[in-house]
Every structure is written in structure tokens, then in C-alpha cells.
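Action item from last week, closing it out:
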Amino acid sequence: MMMKHMWQSGVLLGGAGLDGQTVSIADTRSAAEFLLSGWGRERKDAYLRAVRACAQALKGQIPHSAAAATFVSAVVEARYEINLFDTFWENFDAEISRAAEELISADFPFWAYGDAAAESARS
């Protein structure tokens, strides 16, 4: 299932999360949340433009691609480690994982529910 605000290219921010974890941003809502609650750098002009662009995109006033471009400008200006990824493949991987999990849980219900279900199935 594709998210309504999914970007064509996602952004990986190295060292931006708690304990230096990589943060993955693939849609406007995630970008807005990161800008407002996860931003650990100085809030310069590009940051303010990114916040404004994300808000406008979520209201339908500008395209989500414009919010993505503005967000990338802000993270570059803030000197975050940045890598881009194709969000199509992330969605594809998620759908394949979901389908595989459904098949496995149908054929092996104890696998999906852990050891307690396995014990009751053996009884």
C-alpha cells in the first residue's frame, strides 16, 4: 500500500537519530515530524523553509516533491550525512514481507504467535 505523501526518493540521515542511529525519511509527514522533534542542528533559513514547505504540502497547497526538495536542502545546509534511496523498493520489500508473513502464519500458525501457541497446538 503506497502512502499518499510518499516521496520518489527517500533520505537516509546518518547519525541523526538517538544514539547516532540512521533516520529514514520517505514522506512529507515523516519529514515534518523529524524537523519538529528530531532536528539536532542549528535552525537556519533552509530549516524554516523546509518546515513551511512540509506544512504547505500536507495542506495540499504545494506538491510533496517540493517539500522533499526543500527538506533535502535543509539537511544539506545542516551538514547531516545524507544518502538517497528509491522508495519504490522500500514499499516493494514491505509488501513482500507482509505477504510472506501471511503465508507463513496460515501454514504454520505457531510460528506467527510464538512458543505459547506452539505449546497449545502440541497439546
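Closing note: The first helix runs from residue 28 to 38.
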